[in-house]
Amino acid sequence: MDIKTELDNFLGEKRALVEAIVRESRRGVSAMEISRHVAPAFGRDVVKEFLASVDRHDRARVALRQAGLDGPVAVRMPSIDKPRAAALSLDMDPLEIPDLASVPARVREALRDIHIALCLPPRDERELTPTLTDELLLDGEEFHLAALKPAG
């Protein structure tokens, strides 16, 4: 038994399965239907949480592109492994970004319009204020994308 070969095969197959899950979801197949098909590999809640993050990723990319921010800001796909969160951060040298000071507010506005909020990774317990968000974003900090909770 060659463990390295078996591990490489396993990881390749896992990656292919995750790509198929995303592809089927983007084709309009429900998370419940997908979770039934992949139940031997991933639990229903894992699939639902992962696909919700994929949806936030996709909607955020479109919103940021429409706001003209797809150059300076990158949105990364979530992993099916924890924390299963799409992530966002600056993706350019700040010196190369025109009107850098306006970028954080424009990011928050574009995401707010599609009911997505920036949040810090779970291990980071700082209270996120608009000022701190702006500072961290401009410093290149990575944020997770979360569903915006309704006011009240």
Strand content: 5-15%
Distinct helical segment count: 5
**How many structural domains?**
1
Question: What class would the helix/strand composition place it in?
Answer: alpha+beta
Span between N and C termini? 59 Å
Largest sheet: 4 strands, antiparallel
Tell me the helix content. Answer: 40-55%
Mind explaining what this structure looks like?
Strands 1-2-4-3 form a four-stranded antiparallel beta sheet. The chain is globular, with a radius of gyration of 18 Å. Helix content is 48%, strand content 11%. With 152 residues, it is α+β, with helices and mostly antiparallel strands. It has one domain (3-147).
Outline:
With 152 residues, the chain is an alpha+beta fold.
